[in-house]
Amino acid sequence: MIDNIDIAVAKREIEMASILNPGPWVAHSYNVGLAAKYIAEACGMLNADKAYIYGLLHDIGRRNGISALKHTIDGYDYAMSKGWKEVAKVCLTHSFPIKDIEADIAKKDITEEQYQFMKHYLENIDYDDYDKLIILCDALADKQGFCILEKRFIDTTRRYGIYPFTVERWNQTYNYKAYFEEMIGTSIYTLLPNIESCIFK
């Protein structure tokens, strides 16, 4: 049991959320969870079940419907209402490779109160290995499966556009990749099944 939630409960949450708001985010969430699990297992120092749950639930805020940045605070609020404090943190941090609310590519479809809360929250926390892992895995998985970072970066840039901080976000994600690769002693791509078949889809 991690953060008062186990894998079975996490999967039920995704199933219920997929009924409320079906879409490609559901398959993406499963793939992020698997990527996080595989990398955590290889690291040895991380809890693979915990990583899997965090990956599954990082986008749970999308249960509320189609949204942009709002899904992060919606996920945080929902997880907190369940008593899942650690899950709530990942729901909010996963969209911010750079720990700055202004360095996000999504439309700020949030209230001023939510903006101020998120700004203060990000400024006053430190990212742990699970925050870094889910940020990385969010960029390693799409609805089809696992993919190299460059594919995901191009996909999101085509959808959201280019910003002054775009390359800085990419570089920080590469830093997280290097961090975990140093920990496991090999490329993270070797841990993700069928990744080559996803490169040119």
UniProtKB/TrEMBL annotation:
SUPFAM superfamilies linked to this entry: HD-domain/PDEase-like
SMART domains referenced in this protein's UniProt entry, alphabetically: HDc
Gene3D superfamilies for the chain: Hypothetical protein af1432
Domain HD/PDEase: 21-152
Domain of life: Bacteria
InterPro entries given in the database record: HD/PDEase_dom, HDOD
Pfam families the UniProt entry points to: HDOD
Protein name (database record): HD domain-containing protein
